[in-house]
Amino acid sequence: MERVVEAAGIFNKMIVGGKWKEATRLLNEMVSKNIFPDVFTFRVLVDTLCKEGMVVEAEGVVEMIIQRDIDPNTVTYTSLMDDEAMMLFLDMSHKGLVANTITYNTLADGFLQSG
């Protein structure tokens, strides 16, 4: 678990530091060597990319998660709930994931901001 936390922290610092291209290269290099981050590390990547306004890149990471047969969790979907809030919420529900307080707060905040 310690290495997972370290990898998630490294990706977070790289992206926040403006080095998201390097983070993407590192992720691709890891995957090419059959080193697959777990859902926690992917979630940190998605969350950080979204917070930095890189929703398209975050969606690409989610697609990679799905292609690797890793099921995105509630927190991963919540991180993406910005422009596509309802679509993602419905997709999450169809997959049997249960929304939590943060999910509903994120939805409410998004609806309030959009008017």
What is the overall number of helices?
Answer: 7
Unreliable runs, pLDDT <50, ≥5 residues? none
Number of domains: 1
Overall, the morphology is globular
Q: For the residues shown, what is the average pLDDT?
A: 79
Strand share of the residues?
under 5%
Global structural class: mainly alpha
Oligomer: single chain
- Output the helix-strand order: HHHHHHH
Would you report the number of β strands? 0
| Rg value | 14 Å
Distance between the termini: 42 Å
Largest sheet: none
Helicity, as a percent range: over 70%
State the gist of this model:
The chain is mainly alpha-helical and 115 residues long. The protein has helices at 2-16, 20-32, 39-51, 55-67, 74-80, 85-94, 101-114.
Question: Could you explain the architecture of this structure?
Answer:
It is a single chain. The chain has helices at 2-16, 20-32, 39-51, 55-67, 74-80, 85-94, 101-114. 74% of the residues lie in helices and 0% in strands. It has one domain. By secondary structure, it is an all-alpha fold.
Main attributes of the structure:
115 residues, mainly alpha, 7 helices, globular
SSE layout and pairing:
Blueprint: H1 2-16, H2 20-32, H3 39-51, H4 55-67, H5 74-80, H6 85-94, H7 101-114
Helix pairs in contact: 1-2, 1-3, 3-4, 3-5, 5-6, 5-7
